[in-house]
Amino acid sequence: MHRLKKIIFSVLNCLYDSVSMMLRKNVEKRQMFKQLDGVYLAIDEICDGGIIMEVEPQCVMDKVAIRNDDIPLTEQTVAQVFQSAKEQIKWSLLK
């Protein structure tokens, strides 16, 4: 049980630190909403299909920066982003 708490603590710390870096230490609801696509990318880099992939905030930020360049999320509607996320979850569950 203690190990599980330590793992969850590491993941949550990584998420907070990554978001904090992304928002330049201005972690508040309004700023998070403005950068929501980046927050989703950070979560995706930290955990994929329920498997913890990364717990180092700087590595997460580096990967988010690369993916942010490749994927023009600003050109997609929210519905398209959620549909894409649903498809990815569906295919990861079917594996």
Keywords:
95 residues, mainly alpha, globular, 4% strand, two-stranded antiparallel sheet
Helix content: over 70%
What gyration radius follows from the Cα positions, in whole Å? 14 Å
Based on helices, strands and strand pairing, what is the structural class?
mainly alpha
Average pLDDT number: 78
User: How many strand segments?
Assistant: 2
Q: Sum up the overall morphology in one term.
A: globular
Physical arrangement of strands within the biggest beta sheet: 1-2
Tally of helical segments: 5
> What amount of the residues lies in strands?
under 5%
The CATH class, by name, is Alpha Beta
Outline the structure in words.
The chain is built from five helices and two strands. The protein has 95 residues and is mainly alpha-helical. The chain has one domain: Beta-Lactamase, CATH 3.30.450.60. The protein has a two-stranded antiparallel ribbon with strand order 1-2. Strand 1 and strand 2 form a beta hairpin. Helix 1 runs antiparallel to helix 3 and helix 1 crosses helix 4. It is globular. The protein starts with a helix and ends with a helix. The model has no long low-confidence stretch (mean pLDDT 78).
SSE arrangement:
Elements lengths: L1 H21 L6 H6 L1 H11 E2 L2 E2 L4 H14 L7 H17 L1
Antiparallel strand pairs: 1-2
Helix pairs in contact: 1-3, 1-4, 3-4
Quick overview:
This protein has 95 residues and is mostly helical.
